[in-house]
Protein backbone atom coordinates (compact mmCIF):
# COMPACT_ATOMS: atom_id res chain seq x y z
CA UNK A 1 0.00 0.00 0.00
CA UNK A 2 1.65 3.27 -1.10
CA UNK A 3 1.25 6.57 0.73
CA UNK A 4 -1.33 7.85 -1.77
CA UNK A 5 -3.56 4.84 -1.24
CA UNK A 6 -3.14 5.01 2.52
CA UNK A 7 -4.18 8.67 2.56
CA UNK A 8 -7.20 7.90 0.39
CA UNK A 9 -8.27 5.07 2.69
CA UNK A 10 -7.95 7.44 5.66
CA UNK A 11 -9.97 10.07 3.80
CA UNK A 12 -12.80 7.58 3.22
CA UNK A 13 -12.90 6.82 6.95
CA UNK A 14 -12.74 10.49 7.91
CA UNK A 15 -15.63 11.35 5.60
CA UNK A 16 -17.70 8.39 6.84
CA UNK A 17 -17.28 9.66 10.38
CA UNK A 18 -17.92 13.28 9.40
CA UNK A 19 -21.16 12.55 7.55
CA UNK A 20 -22.56 10.83 10.64
CA UNK A 21 -21.34 13.52 13.03
CA UNK A 22 -22.88 16.20 10.81
CA UNK A 23 -26.22 14.41 10.51
CA UNK A 24 -25.81 13.74 6.80
CA UNK A 25 -26.09 10.03 7.52
CA UNK A 26 -27.08 7.70 10.34
CA UNK A 27 -25.43 4.52 11.58
CA UNK A 28 -23.71 2.41 8.91
CA UNK A 29 -26.38 2.99 6.27
CA UNK A 30 -24.15 5.20 4.11
CA UNK A 31 -21.11 4.19 2.08
CA UNK A 32 -18.26 5.95 0.32
CA UNK A 33 -15.91 4.95 -2.48
CA UNK A 34 -12.92 6.51 -4.22
CA UNK A 35 -10.96 5.73 -7.36
CA UNK A 36 -7.29 4.83 -6.98
CA UNK A 37 -5.88 4.13 -10.41
CA UNK A 38 -7.56 0.94 -11.68
CA UNK A 39 -8.95 0.14 -8.24
CA UNK A 40 -12.03 1.24 -6.34
CA UNK A 41 -11.61 1.64 -2.60
CA UNK A 42 -14.91 1.33 -0.72
CA UNK A 43 -16.06 1.36 2.90
CA UNK A 44 -16.70 -2.15 4.26
CA UNK A 45 -20.12 -3.61 4.97
CA UNK A 46 -21.89 -3.06 8.30
CA UNK A 47 -18.80 -1.77 10.10
CA UNK A 48 -19.14 1.05 12.65
CA UNK A 49 -17.14 4.00 11.39
CA UNK A 50 -15.55 4.65 14.79
CA UNK A 51 -13.68 1.34 14.72
CA UNK A 52 -12.78 1.39 11.03
CA UNK A 53 -9.09 1.35 10.11
CA UNK A 54 -7.45 1.91 6.70
CA UNK A 55 -6.79 -1.83 6.29
CA UNK A 56 -10.53 -2.54 6.61
CA UNK A 57 -11.39 -0.51 3.49
CA UNK A 58 -12.07 -2.99 0.68
CA UNK A 59 -10.38 -2.81 -2.71
CA UNK A 60 -12.16 -3.84 -5.92
CA UNK A 61 -10.75 -3.91 -9.47
CA UNK A 62 -12.64 -1.55 -11.76
CA UNK A 63 -11.83 -3.41 -14.97
CA UNK A 64 -10.95 -6.84 -13.53
CA UNK A 65 -13.13 -9.70 -12.35
CA UNK A 66 -16.51 -8.17 -11.63
CA UNK A 67 -17.34 -8.24 -7.94
CA UNK A 68 -13.97 -9.53 -6.76
CA UNK A 69 -12.45 -7.79 -3.77
CA UNK A 70 -9.50 -7.75 -1.41
CA UNK A 71 -9.48 -7.01 2.30
CA UNK A 72 -10.31 -8.49 5.67
CA UNK A 73 -13.94 -7.32 5.42
CA UNK A 74 -16.53 -7.52 2.64
CA UNK A 75 -17.20 -4.33 0.68
CA UNK A 76 -20.41 -2.40 1.27
CA UNK A 77 -23.55 -4.20 0.14
CA UNK A 78 -23.98 -1.28 -2.30
CA UNK A 79 -20.65 -2.03 -4.03
CA UNK A 80 -22.48 -2.78 -7.27
CA UNK A 81 -23.72 0.73 -8.06
CA UNK A 82 -20.44 2.22 -6.84
CA UNK A 83 -18.49 -0.05 -9.19
CA UNK A 84 -20.89 0.36 -12.11
CA UNK A 85 -20.70 4.16 -11.81
CA UNK A 86 -16.89 4.01 -11.73
CA UNK A 87 -16.87 1.79 -14.82
CA UNK A 88 -19.37 3.92 -16.77
CA UNK A 89 -18.09 7.33 -15.66
CA UNK A 90 -14.28 7.52 -15.87
CA UNK A 91 -14.41 11.18 -14.77
CA UNK A 92 -15.81 10.13 -11.38
CA UNK A 93 -13.22 9.87 -8.62
CA UNK A 94 -15.48 9.74 -5.56
CA UNK A 95 -18.99 8.55 -4.69
CA UNK A 96 -21.02 9.28 -1.57
CA UNK A 97 -24.24 7.42 -0.72
CA UNK A 98 -26.25 8.44 2.33
CA UNK A 99 -29.71 8.16 3.82
CA UNK A 100 -29.76 11.89 4.50
CA UNK A 101 -33.12 12.79 6.06
CA UNK A 102 -34.64 15.31 3.63
CA UNK A 103 -33.26 13.66 0.51
CA UNK A 104 -34.72 10.37 1.76
CA UNK A 105 -38.07 11.97 2.63
CA UNK A 106 -38.40 13.14 -0.98
CA UNK A 107 -37.24 9.74 -2.23
CA UNK A 108 -39.89 8.04 -0.10
CA UNK A 109 -42.52 10.40 -1.51
CA UNK A 110 -41.16 9.59 -5.00
CA UNK A 111 -40.45 13.25 -5.75
CA UNK A 112 -37.53 14.45 -7.85
CA UNK A 113 -36.08 17.87 -7.07
CA UNK A 114 -36.92 20.54 -9.69
CA UNK A 115 -35.07 23.79 -10.46
CA UNK A 116 -36.07 25.43 -7.17
CA UNK A 117 -32.62 26.94 -6.50
CA UNK A 118 -29.77 28.15 -8.68
CA UNK A 119 -27.45 25.60 -7.04
CA UNK A 120 -29.28 22.96 -9.05
CA UNK A 121 -26.72 23.80 -11.74
CA UNK A 122 -24.07 22.06 -9.62
CA UNK A 123 -25.77 18.76 -10.38
CA UNK A 124 -25.55 19.11 -14.14
CA UNK A 125 -29.08 20.06 -15.14
CA UNK A 126 -32.45 21.49 -14.18
CA UNK A 127 -33.43 18.67 -11.82
CA UNK A 128 -32.15 15.94 -9.57
CA UNK A 129 -33.83 12.82 -10.87
CA UNK A 130 -35.43 10.03 -8.89
CA UNK A 131 -34.17 6.53 -9.65
CA UNK A 132 -36.69 3.71 -9.62
CA UNK A 133 -37.04 1.41 -6.64
CA UNK A 134 -35.20 -1.89 -6.36
CA UNK A 135 -33.83 -3.81 -3.39
CA UNK A 136 -30.48 -2.58 -2.07
CA UNK A 137 -27.39 -4.20 -3.53
CA UNK A 138 -29.07 -5.43 -6.71
CA UNK A 139 -28.15 -5.04 -10.38
CA UNK A 140 -31.60 -3.55 -10.94
CA UNK A 141 -30.92 -0.76 -8.45
CA UNK A 142 -27.55 -0.08 -10.06
CA UNK A 143 -29.17 0.17 -13.50
CA UNK A 144 -31.80 2.60 -12.19
CA UNK A 145 -29.10 4.72 -10.54
CA UNK A 146 -27.00 4.88 -13.72
CA UNK A 147 -30.04 6.03 -15.70
CA UNK A 148 -30.90 8.74 -13.17
CA UNK A 149 -27.28 9.91 -13.08
CA UNK A 150 -26.95 10.30 -16.85
CA UNK A 151 -25.63 13.85 -17.34
CA UNK A 152 -25.93 14.45 -13.59
CA UNK A 153 -23.75 14.38 -10.49
CA UNK A 154 -26.49 13.32 -8.07
CA UNK A 155 -29.76 11.44 -7.87
CA UNK A 156 -32.31 10.25 -5.37
CA UNK A 157 -33.06 6.54 -4.93
CA UNK A 158 -36.75 5.77 -4.49
CA UNK A 159 -37.60 4.80 -0.89
CA UNK A 160 -33.90 4.63 -0.09
CA UNK A 161 -31.59 7.67 -0.12
CA UNK A 162 -29.24 9.62 -2.38
CA UNK A 163 -26.05 9.35 -4.40
CA UNK A 164 -23.58 12.14 -5.19
CA UNK A 165 -20.57 11.72 -7.48
CA UNK A 166 -17.60 13.96 -8.15
CA UNK A 167 -14.19 14.11 -9.77
CA UNK A 168 -12.72 13.77 -6.28
CA UNK A 169 -13.92 12.52 -2.93
CA UNK A 170 -14.02 16.11 -1.63
CA UNK A 171 -16.21 17.17 -4.57
CA UNK A 172 -18.59 14.25 -4.08
CA UNK A 173 -19.04 15.08 -0.39
CA UNK A 174 -19.54 18.76 -1.17
CA UNK A 175 -22.28 17.82 -3.63
CA UNK A 176 -23.89 15.47 -1.12
CA UNK A 177 -24.12 18.33 1.38
CA UNK A 178 -25.51 20.68 -1.28
CA UNK A 179 -28.08 18.09 -2.30
CA UNK A 180 -29.33 17.56 1.24
CA UNK A 181 -29.50 21.34 1.75
CA UNK A 182 -31.61 21.85 -1.37
CA UNK A 183 -33.77 18.82 -0.50
CA UNK A 184 -34.56 20.42 2.86
CA UNK A 185 -35.32 23.79 1.28
CA UNK A 186 -37.55 22.23 -1.37
CA UNK A 187 -39.38 20.15 1.22
CA UNK A 188 -40.08 23.23 3.35
CA UNK A 189 -41.40 25.24 0.39
CA UNK A 190 -43.94 22.49 -0.31
CA UNK A 191 -45.58 23.46 2.99
CA UNK A 192 -46.19 27.05 1.81
CA UNK A 193 -47.52 26.42 -1.64
CA UNK A 194 -44.48 25.12 -3.46
CA UNK A 195 -41.46 26.82 -5.06
CA UNK A 196 -41.26 29.25 -7.94
CA UNK A 197 -39.03 27.39 -10.37
CA UNK A 198 -36.14 28.83 -12.33
CA UNK A 199 -36.02 28.54 -16.10
CA UNK A 200 -33.63 26.38 -18.12
CA UNK A 201 -31.87 29.63 -19.14
CA UNK A 202 -31.44 30.64 -15.49
CA UNK A 203 -29.80 27.32 -14.66
CA UNK A 204 -27.60 27.44 -17.76
CA UNK A 205 -26.44 30.94 -16.86
CA UNK A 206 -25.52 29.77 -13.36
CA UNK A 207 -23.68 26.73 -14.72
CA UNK A 208 -21.54 28.96 -16.92
CA UNK A 209 -20.56 31.05 -13.89
CA UNK A 210 -19.53 28.02 -11.83
CA UNK A 211 -15.98 27.80 -13.21
CA UNK A 212 -14.37 29.16 -10.06
CA UNK A 213 -17.05 28.37 -7.47
CA UNK A 214 -17.15 25.73 -4.76
CA UNK A 215 -14.90 22.70 -4.44
CA UNK A 216 -12.95 22.49 -7.68
CA UNK A 217 -12.25 19.39 -9.72
CA UNK A 218 -8.61 18.28 -9.61
CA UNK A 219 -6.72 19.70 -12.60
CA UNK A 220 -5.83 17.39 -15.47
CA UNK A 221 -2.15 16.47 -15.58
CA UNK A 222 -2.11 17.60 -19.19
CA UNK A 223 -3.34 21.08 -18.33
CA UNK A 224 -1.64 23.96 -16.63
CA UNK A 225 -3.39 25.56 -13.70
CA UNK A 226 -4.45 29.05 -14.68
CA UNK A 227 -3.62 31.77 -12.20
CA UNK A 228 -6.60 33.69 -10.88
Question: What key attributes describe this structure?
Answer:
L-fuculose-1-phosphate Aldolase, single chain, 228 residues, alpha+beta
**Poorly predicted regions:** 221-228
- Overall mean pLDDT score? 93
CA radius of gyration: 17 Å
Strand content: 5-15%
CATH structural architecture: 3-Layer(aba) Sandwich
- What is the highest CATH level, the class? Alpha Beta
Question: Which percent range fits the helix content?
Answer: 25-40%
Largest sheet: 7 strands, mixed
The name of the CATH topology is: L-fuculose-1-phosphate Aldolase
Global structural class: alpha+beta
Order of helices and strands: HEEEHEHEHEEHH
Identify the CATH homologous superfamily.
Answer: Class II aldolase/adducin N-terminal domain
Describe this structure in words.
34% of the residues lie in helices and 14% in strands. The protein is an alpha+beta fold and 228 residues long. The protein has one domain (3-212): Class II aldolase/adducin N-terminal domain (L-fuculose-1-phosphate Aldolase), CATH 3.40.225. The protein has a 7-stranded mixed sheet, sandwiched between helices. The model is unreliable at 221-228 (pLDDT under 50).
Helix-strand layout with pairing:
Elements: H1 3-21, E1 31-36, E2 39-42, E3 58-61, H2 79-88, E4 94-98, H3 101-108, E5 130-131, H4 139-148, E6 154-157, E7 161-166, H5 169-190, H6 200-208
Parallel strand pairs: 5-6
Antiparallel strand pairs: 1-2, 1-4, 2-3, 4-7, 6-7
Helix pairs in contact: 2-4, 3-5
Amino acid sequence: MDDTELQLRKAIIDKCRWMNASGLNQGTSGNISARHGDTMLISPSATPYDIMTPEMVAAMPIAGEYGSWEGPLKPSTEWRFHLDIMKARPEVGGIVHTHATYSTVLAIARKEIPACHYMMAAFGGTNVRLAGYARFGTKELSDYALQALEGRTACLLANHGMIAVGASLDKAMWLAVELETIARQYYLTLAIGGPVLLSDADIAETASAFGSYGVQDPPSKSKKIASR
